[in-house]
Amino acid sequence: MHGPLSAAWLLVALCAASGAYCLLRLRSGVEEQRRTAGDEALMGFGMALMAVPAAVLTPPAWAWLLYAAVFGAAALRALWAARRGAHHLHHLMGTVAMAYMALEMAGRPAGHAHHGTTGAPALTGVLLGYFAVYVLWAGARLVPAASAGGASFAGWGDRPELARACRLSMGIGTLAMLLTM
Questions:
Q1: Is the pLDDT of residue 50 over 50?
Q2: What is the pLDDT of residue 2?
Q3: Which of 14, 16, 46, 93 has its CA 20 to 30 A from that of 24?
């Protein structure tokens, strides 16, 4: 990721923390929480790795191709799972965005940002638009969940407001990473 070093490290920490919480959700007693937790943990940890500042670690081109293959496989899995519900369509968009960014990084000279004169490619624009709308929607949806009282949960993995906060965090992270493309 290119950009201010402190912002990149904050993004790494945020994505890693989201991935770690998603691992906790794998132990949830609620089927809905477990069903998506693994996919979201992969996204969180993958985003954390991809957001490590280029000044600290510049992966070789083959590593970016490996990221693209992993997220491409996750995209196919999300496409297959999308027949069960709309939430998997968001997973599909996230994995496509990650595979796209990895392929873009594989095609760049090591440690260099893209400084083209043609502007953002169409796919970047579509993904930016999608994640901007998603972040606004998820943020608005988070407020009522956090203020709803009376519900008691058995453990950390069964807290829907924390799962929504993680999804919002990863959406913001994806948006930030797309902006640096």
A1: yes
A2: 53
A3: 93
Q: Distance (Å, rounded) from C-alpha 142 to C-alpha 65?
A: 35
CA angle 136, 157, 37 (to 5 degrees): 65
pTM for the structure as a whole: 0.80
Q: Summarize the confidence of residues 59-63 as an average pLDDT.
A: 88
DSSP structure string for 103-147: HHHHTSPTT-----SS-S-HHHHHHHHHHHHHHHHHHHHHHHHHH
3-state secondary structure of 60: coil
- Residue 112: CB partners within 8 Å, gap ≥ 6? none
How many Å from the N-terminal Cα to the C-terminal Cα in the chain? 8
